[in-house]
Amino acid sequence: MTPDFFVTSLIIVATPGTGVIYTLSKALSGGTKSAVVAAFGCTLGILPHMLAASLGLTALLATHETLFQLLKIAGVIYLLYMALSLWSGGTISLEHDGHQREKSGDIIVRAVLINLLNPKLSLFFLAFLPQFVPVDDQTPLRLFAIHSMIFMTLTFIVFAIYGSLAASLRRYVFTKPNVMKRIFQGFSAAFLLMSIKLAFSSR
Q1: Rounded CA gap, 157 and 193, in Å?
Q2: Number of domains in the chain
Q3: Model pTM greater than 0.85?
Q4: Mind listing the pLDDT tens digit for each residue in 53-101?
């Protein structure tokens, strides 16, 4: 792994996106454990895109407009669903005070879908990771897999750190219902904006 790959990957992972927002929401509603589970789910959601890129399937997405549009529509719909569910999420979590926490399996499924239904992520890996695989390498797939696993590891670590920091503020927001409500409405607005951005995106 080159320093360029590590630094570039770290910058990409640390830039707040849908995965970070979802992890933060789970940290505030369910604590550190829920945040770590969400981070794991978001990381797991990257795997299909990396496998598709390594097998050349991502090229189909890059060349077939209909396939790209179908996946994009599914992604937009799911982001809108997340926006709606988070709008009242702060109030629900506050009322139950964390006693009826969301199951880990449900958190993982939602987190995986956030990344799985994002066609831009597939195209990103098609353009990003191959840059760090020399054209004359004798085992390009092995090197591609190694870089992919490093990227996924960084994703999990950074997201878990974000979540742990947010979870440390949980006691504070639980004592302030209006703050909790506004935070979750902010998360909801962020998902709404990202759904709009995805809707108007192109290959």
Answers
A1: 26
A2: 1
A3: no
A4: 777 665 666 567 777 787 788 878 888 887 887 786 644 444 444 444 6
Going 149 to 153 to 156 to 158, the CA torsion angle's sign is: negative
The closest of 21, 161, 13 to 79, measured between CA atoms, is 21
Name the most confidently modeled range: 22-26, 59-63, 120-124, 136-140. Answer: 22-26
Residue owning tokens 């190694």: 146
The length of the chain, given as a count of residues: 203
Instruction: Report yes or no on 7 lying in a domain.
Output: no
Evaluate whether residue 4 is within a structural domain: no
- 44-66 burial by CB neighbour count: b if 16+ within 10 A, else e? bbbeebbebbbeeebeebeeeee
In a domain, 12, yes or no: no
